[in-house]
Amino acid sequence: MTLYLCPGVHPPSLSERLCQVLGLTQVLILPTSTHPPYSPLHVFDFARQQGLDELCFLAFSAGVVGAMGAAWMWQQQGGRVKAIIALDGWGVPHLGEVPLHRLSHDLRTDQQSGWLGVGGDRFYADPPVAHLELWAYPERARGLWLAESGLRQYTDAATFMRAMLRRYGELD
To answer: InterPro entries from the entry (predicted)?
Structure first.
């Protein structure tokens, strides 16, 4: 298992729902009741305690802050990071050489995130959805998948996430 969920500050039931929607069965979830998701050190320490060698981050909101910093630290310690799939990571710059895929709840957030490093394929909801809906109900968030190659496809956030997870060997 290398998939590491870094939720935001919200009820754990929403992360459990996301796992069900995406069909995730083997996943490490940061316990936000004891580890603040916005703290790279806490995110890093929890992963280290699990004895893992490589990680693939799926992070939301405040969890993107923790995941991005933890990924950088993980690499500095000799670990491998497959990718970061970041949902609504406003204001979080792309650190290092880790493949990054951003999902945004609207076009404006997607455009603003571009200044901080777009990474690879990305997705934005169109029409816009509420911030928390992107995590809790990704199958309802319809929008554009913008491939690194320049191709554009209308789909939903759940389909986009499943494709990225398959790309990195985290989903059958």
So the answer is: AB_hydrolase_fold
**Is 172 within a domain?**
no
Domain count, the chain: 1
Determine the structural domain holding residue 35 and report its residue range.
3-167
81 bridge partner residues? 55
Which residues lie closer than 8 Å to 16 by C-beta, 6 or more apart? none
Q: Which single residue is written with the structure tokens 């990305």?
A: 122
Instruction: Give pLDDT, residue 120.
Output: 85
E strands present in 54-134: 54-60, 80-87, 100-104, 122-125
First-to-last CA distance in the chain?
13
Q: pLDDT tens, 29-50?
A: 999 999 999 999 999 999 999 9
